[in-house]
Structures are given as C-alpha cells and as structure tokens.
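Field guide to reading this record: the first block holds the primary sequence, the second block holds the structure written as discrete tokens, and the final block holds curator observations. Each block starts with its own label. This record concerns DUF4352 domain-containing protein, catalogued under organism Mesorhizobium dulcispinae.

BLOCK 1 — SEQUENCE
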Amino acid sequence: MLENVGSRLKAWLVAGIGTAAAIAVAGVMGAFGARHEPLSVLAPAGRIETGQWLLRPLKAYTAEGESLYGVPLKPGAKALVLELEMTNRTAKSTKDYFDVLQADQATVDPTTKPFIVLMRDSTLSPELHPGMPERMAYIWQLPDGAAPPASLELTVIRKTYKPRDNLYGLPGWFNPAPIGTLKLPVGSGSDTADIQP
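BLOCK 2 — STRUCTURE
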C-alpha cells in the first residue's frame, strides 16, 4: 500500500513538473510569437498589386469646400484627398475596395471611412469593371481645427483568391492581410503635381 502511495505521489510530481514546463514553454513561445516583422515600405511612385487590385498612387493633398467631387463636406471643412489609379484585376465588376487602404491613426480618425469617388464623373463608390484603369479619389474629412498633415501614411491590404471558401464552398477573395506601408507627401489643393514614376 505504501508503494502505491509512493507511485501516485511520484506520478503527480512528474505530471506537475511536466505541466509547469509546458506552461513555461508556451509562455516563452507566446512572447516571441507576439513579435511581428515590420511591414515593407512600398515605393510611392510604383504600382502595387493587392490581389484584386492594381494600384498606382498619384498624389495626396488637402482641400477646402462644401462639395469636393460631389462629396458633401461640412461648410468650411478641410479634407485630405488621395488620388490614385485603380485597376480591377478580377473577372467581375466590383467595388470591394473600401479596405484596401487604411490611413494611419495619426493622420485621420480610424473610425472615419473615406468617401471614394470616380473622378471622371464624381460617382460615389462605383463598381469598377475588369481591366479598365480608373482614376479614383479617397476623401477623408479632417476633424474641426485639425492641422493638415505633412504626409499621408497608409497600410495597403491584400486579399487572397480561393476557388472554394470553407463555409459556403463558393469562390471569393479572403484573408485580408497588410502587405506594406505607403507614405505620400501632402500638398495643398488639387493643383499638386502627380508623383512621377
């Protein structure tokens, strides 16, 4: 009987030490896993491929006015504008571009979504057709009294195509993930020159 008690005590000790070791290893791995590699810095004048979209940044500037490309701004409000060329690389018309660019928190309020406008006719949030480059404007209204930023910092998001998703077995673009950061100088007014490649 004494042998039985000794065996059980030994088993509990081994299990306790094993559990403590496993917790310690998991903690260390978690600490190292929390470290993320910095995102690559994307060339402002280059073309950026995001899966669904081919982007070419053109210019960033601040503007004032009650109606900028038909976007209803508060009287006297300032807006931060990003002009870029977007090409739909998919087989269908789509407007799945709202999250492809995320403005840095220091530049604009992250809860503020931009207005997105087709510049040639001021259509808000249009579907873009496959293979047709279109000049688009992303417009963020700046908070009252905010000084215009010297630069616009963006995170570019890529999605991956899957012929069958896990839930419905349908094709689509999934798994959004940042691919890099983009920093553009901010000019004053729409006469700001385009970035040269």
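BLOCK 3 — OBSERVATIONS
The two ends are 84 Å apart (CA to CA).
The chain has one domain: 48-188.
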